[in-house]
């Protein structure tokens, strides 16, 4: 497994390097002078030159890129001149809130998909398949910016049992019971389309496995159907689910932007929206690179988990 991981690392690092170069160059091609925008309309030329020097914009493009890359490696990301505060602190707080939300939504998605998929093959009835198919279609068809307000209207306005938005005032650890109340609505909103996609793929993968020859052999040996599904077919279907899970996790992070806006959740998505709308280029530059890094890490973890479940991938990766 270690050799397989080392085999995949160079390509991941190459993607990160290419992404950092592309992000750096694209932001330099955006119309307008960042120093002038940061300084404001009434700024004097001297003030603009000071800001330009602080941002390093008076240096050549290669020197600017190498300086920025060195700052990223040392976590010296500078300040946000528009939103205010150190970029490291802003990103740290936003990333913590986003990770709590996305991990909760991911756990809900996996749990729901496992329960529904296994139940669909253990008790294959027409009404259950119809209900599952209808629920999956609705969950995928309704966008998060529609589901979010609907959840707030039902569970925070019509039946006021949960908070309409925000984060726990005492943090996520001090009062877990309060934290769960704040997490529930945004996590469900974020998890619905992902759980629907995972359920669909896992159910089909289980049905494919149950149609194979080894299942017939196991049944002829007197092994129970439930044991075949939970110990045999499910394990063989998990690599397919993991591949889909890696893709859906990326969509979770993308959907977090809308969910955080709907539930006033101060995470990375809300920070990206603020940085882009206010043209806070130093902050946007870091956030875009962080987004790519998260996608690369998720894909790497998915590939390693897939290889752990399927030895054929490890063998192919070493050959």
TrEMBL record:
| Predominant location category | membrane
Record keywords, A-Z: Cell membrane, Membrane, Transmembrane, Transmembrane helix, Transport
Q: A Pfam family for this UniProt protein?
A: BPD_transp_1
Which residue ranges run through the membrane?
99-123, 135-159, 179-202, 241-265, 285-309
Q: Looking at the record's lineage, which domain of life comes first?
A: Bacteria
InterPro entries recorded for this chain? BPD_transp_1_N, MetI-like, MetI-like_sf
Residue limits of the ABC transmembrane type-1 domain? 95-302
Q: Indicate where this protein resides in the cell.
A: Cell membrane
Q: This protein is called what?
A: Peptide/nickel transport system permease protein
List the source organism. Nocardia alba
Q: What are the leading ranks of the lineage?
A: Bacteria, Bacillati, Actinomycetota, Actinomycetes, Mycobacteriales
